[in-house]
Design a protein that fits this description.
The chain is α+β, with helices and mostly antiparallel strands and 325 residues long. The protein contains seven helices and 21 strands. The protein has one domain. Strand 13 and strand 14 form a beta hairpin. The radius of gyration is 18 Å and the shape is globular.
Length: 325
């Protein structure tokens, strides 16, 4: 099936991919301030050429809705079954940090590149990996994003290239080894007390609102990135996601998590800056194999005024070779 749609986050407003289900929109609360327009999945933005992936079939196999923009299909997966997760005493929503992201890039000739990660509980780790290996999906990484999640959760990164239907079936088999609830749909009318547009303007990326008022965006790197021997889209789960979770109804207090993607020489300056501003460094790890240049990722956490947090995240991003709007 061919689609003339564009990707979910940044650079253009995207379109909600339906997979046989209703179109979902996104909204802002009355606190939204001036800045770039908030991405609304129900809006359509056309680009030259067709989107060459069987989107509906893939959504039906995985049993989750996705969106398309920047040449990628993105299917988010929230672990709504994992309850009462806290980080440093803060209650963490699944749509904030207890989730995963499936990304697919069409390569032509009916093939795709997939690079993704998913959140799993400790007892699900080995069964999940077993299914990846059984379905010829490359297992790339196993790690914690934060050492002080309670209860602890792990994240598994994986990739594949080939027939998108077969890849989708392999992913679903791995998901079936977990208690992840399905089907999953995009929220109908998400809103947030946070100043989403202003946060996006400061970060330099298009904000999206998801369940629970979480505001998120992706910041790509400028440099070309090779994965598995091919040059991949800079948003193929190798961009730098930044998320904000509102902690009250005023929109003046939030938890923020940037996931900085760095080459080796950028690590020390960035860590020095962020630690000087009291950001909790949750991890430092590689999430892909057969990647060039090798990237190192660090999830960091801080609570405070969302505008101040956004400025601090932007200062960190400016120490990397990031591309801003």
């Amino acid at each position: 099936m061919k689609q003339t749609l564009n990707r979910r986050q940044m650079l253009a407003a995207g379109a909600s991919v339906m997979g046989g289900m209703a179109v979902f929109g996104a909204g802002l609360s009355s606190r939204a301030r001036a800045g770039p327009p908030l991405h609304q999945p129900g809006m359509m933005s056309h680009v030259p050429g067709d989107f060459d992936l069987p989107v509906k079939e893939m959504e039906q196999i995985i049993q989750a809705q996705g969106t398309i923009s920047n040449g990628l299909l993105h299917i988010p997966v929230d672990r709504n079954d994992i309850k009462n997760v806290t980080l440093r005493g803060v209650h963490i929503l699944p749509s904030f940090e207890i989730n995963g992201d499936l990304y697919f890039e069409p390569l032509g000739d009916g093939r795709c590149a997939m690079n993704s990660d998913l959140c799993v509980e400790p007892e699900e780790v080995d069964p999940f990996i077993d299914q990846l290996v059984m379905h010829d999906i490359t297992f790339q990484a196993l790690h914690q994003h934060f050492y002080d999640f309670v209860p602890i959760v792990f994240f598994i990164h994986f990739r594949a290239m080939g027939d998108p239907i077969q890849i989708a079936r392999g992913i679903k088999a791995a998901l079936n080894a977990t208690s992840t609830p399905f089907p999953q749909t995009l929220p109908k009318h998400p809103s947030t007390p946070l100043p989403a547009q202003e946060i996006g303007r400061i970060i330099g990326a298009m904000p999206t609102v998801s369940s629970g008022g979480v505001v998120s965006m992706d910041v790509p790197r400028r440099n070309p990135i090779m994965l598995g021997g091919i040059r991949v889209n800079p948003y193929l789960n190798i961009a730098q996601p930044v998320s904000f979770q509102p902690l009250d109804d005023s929109g003046k207090k939030a938890a923020a998590v940037p996931d900085f993607g760095m080459v080796a020489k950028e690590i020390q300056p960035l860590m020095k800056l962020m630690r000087s501003r009291s950001w909790d460094v949750g991890c430092l790890y590689n999430q892909e194999t057969d990647e060039f240049p090798q990237l190192f990722f660090s999830h960091q956490f801080k609570v405070g005024d969302p505008i101040e947090l956004a400025h601090e995240v932007r200062a960190g991003l400016e120490l990397t070779d990031s591309k801003f709007m």
